[in-house]
Amino acid sequence: MKNFDSHISSKNQDWEKVAKSQLSEQGVVVIRDLISFSDLEKINEKVDNILKQPSLLGNIGYYQKDPYKKLYDGFLIHEKIIDIFLNEKIIRIIENYLKDEILINEIFLKNDLGSNTKYFPYHRHTGADLIKIPNHPFGCGMALYLHDTESGAFCYSIESHKTKSTEETREIFSIYEHPESKNLIKKLSRINGKQGDIILFDEKGFHGPEQPTKTPRKIILSGFQLKKYTNNKTRTEIPVLISNLSGLSDKQKDVIGINSGSRGTFESYHLRNLNNNLVIDHFSKLISKKYNYIDKKTNFINRIKNKFENIF
Ligand SMILES: [Fe+2]
After folding, report:
1. d(CA 225, CA 100)
2. For residue range 104-139, what is the model confidence (pLDDT) as tens digits?
3. Would you identify the CATH topology of the domain 2-275?
4. Between the N and C ends of the chain, which has fewer C-beta atoms within 10 Å?
């Protein structure tokens, strides 16, 4: 696999222009120096705390559907996540690239555990769920590296966003099923980055995490799509803490979806959709057993106490 080591520093003049043109040309761009070290520290402190324990009985903790990764709602981590993902400069770059107004579609924390298996293919988003004009870019993904990331990094098939969509290829999701797969795989590049790097990519291009790897990875993933192709609806209902929304500009409020609808429900979102999960079934039984035991023990102690109180 090739390595992609280039980045654009937000300290440079004209960086927004350069970022937009790299996004157009390569389909992917890495933006550095936009986030302060202290904000990253605050976010990572929260993330570490979330990843300590699973969310059980309503405690703050990660969600986990399978043995490979832990997940959590992006905006519930820290208010700084809103500032970063709704940064007006980032919004401007994406809107300049897509040439129209955008709306967030989802946001989540993903901690791949480094289980040395291939569980997520290199894929692209076909936009099958959107109203769209064929071959026009319709959305951009955005990722935030929470630590320096090399092995297991986000990978992108450079220029694959330019691959023409035809009647035959329109709905192909996996890179391995595409008629041009050999060439597309050859162009797959590992996007090496530093803590705090922001990756923007055209979601029409093939991408995914490098697998298999034994190296764990923590990343926050999100995306934005053209309002006109989504009917101004986010992919899912996105949870936020209301007080974290204070101080947002009208543009930010619009992009975060305050004036939008949603195509999917809160409970059907992939983080939460754990129907028939055997681990949940197992722990549900254990929890009820434990609470029954606590209930019986408390009743027993109270009965003894009452008896003694009556004697003395
Ligand atoms: Fe994806």
Report:
1. 10
2. 999 999 999 999 999 999 999 999 889 877 789 999
3. Jelly Rolls (2.60.120)
4. C
Residue in the block written with tokens 């035959």: 168
Structure tokens at 85: 């993902």
Percent of the chain with pLDDT over 90: 91
Burial of 142 (0-12, 13-18, 19+ CB in 10 A): buried
Ligand 1 centre to CA of 120 (Å) is 9
Helix locations, the chain, DSSP H: 15-26, 37-50, 79-85, 88-98, 181-186, 227-230, 250-256, 278-311
Q: What is the pLDDT of residues 224-255, one digit of tens each?
A: 999 999 999 999 999 999 999 999 999 999 99
**C-alpha 203 – ligand 1 centre gap (Å):** 7
Exposed, middle or buried: residue 115 (CB in 10 Å: 0-12, 13-18, 19+)? middle
C-alpha of residue 280 to centroid of ligand 1, in Å: 27
The alpha carbon of 305 and the centre of ligand 1 are apart by a number of angstroms equal to 60
Phi and psi at residue 151, to the nearest 5°: -60, 130
CA 121 to chain centre: 16
- The yes-or-no verdict on residue 268 having pLDDT over 90 is yes
How far apart are the C-alpha atoms of 187 and 169, rounded to whole Å?
18
Nearest to 242 by CA among 108, 75, 55: 75
Domain limits, the chain: 2-275, 277-312
Distance 201 CA to ligand 1 centre (A): 10
The better pLDDT of the pair 310, 263 is held by 263
Mark 77-103 as b/e (b = at least 16 C-beta within 10 Å): bbbbbbebbbbeebbebbbbbbeeebb
The CA 87 to ligand 1 mean position distance, Å, reads 21
pLDDT confidence of residue 5: 96
